Amino acid sequence: MRTFQLSPPSVLRPFxxxxxxWEGEARExxxxxxxxxxxxxxxxxxxxxxxxxxxxxxxxxxxxxxHLFCQRRRSLQLRSSSGxxxxxxxxxxxxxxxxxxxxxxDLHDGSHxxxxxxxxxxxxxxxxxxxxxGRDERVALIQRFLIENLRRDACDAVVEAGMALxxxxxxxxxxxxLAARLYLGRRQLERxxxxxxxxxxxxxxxxxxxxxxxxxxxxxxxxRPAGAAVARGYYDQAHFNRxxxxxxxxxxxxxxxxxRAGTHFYNTQI
Length: 270
Fold this sequence. Notes:
Elements: E1 2-6, E2 16-23, E3 34-35, E4 41-46, E5 52-54, E6 60-62, E7 66-69, E8 76-77, E9 85-91, E10 111-113, H1 114-131, H2 135-149, H3 157-169, H4 175-181, H5 186-197, H6 201-219, H7 225-231, H8 237-248, H9 252-261
Antiparallel strand pairs: 1-2, 2-9, 3-8, 4-7, 4-9, 5-6, 7-10
Helix pairs in contact: 1-2, 3-6, 6-7, 7-8
């Protein structure tokens, strides 16, 4: 399997972390990972076989050729693919709202098509991508689309700053301390977070903490759950284990065994 990561152009860099993708070799079957709840928003454009995920009833539900994953409360197990090929856009925390006017609460969980999120513009992009002949052309089309749809005015600059602080400090920053740093009362902060993201600051903080621990454990085979969990703000390993099982439905060790031996979507630094 071939992989790549690209830094976005400077105009997108405050809002987009990277563009990245995977492409399977001829007849290669790629075992795809479980997409866990987190703070991320990831926009996928498939020129190979689109993802399909377990629907909870013994079958698989296919995604569109262009779609957004924004998992907050549940995980998605993706089906293995024998025709894999995609380019993904990884947005920085809280920045998907700079590109679409869809409320945050309506983006949570499941797959949201590019056509539904951007209407005629999204459908036109998918059409152009279907005729593109290589990665460079596809990347250029996607970046141009993002630049054209970038809102220069923040829907709430305070919430954007608060989201970034929670992500940077993970479990070390309390919601009261965050409100004080942003010169807001706690209730006002919660109302503004809910209006933009569909989540409270406490929910975002919990996801940040969870996401950082899982990423640490997946990317560092020497890391141990107890140390990683406490370092990110959990009381102890038992606290992390309960949180993980509630969010994912299995024990951390079971997930880590699969992720470390197989595939995952946690990219290293570029």
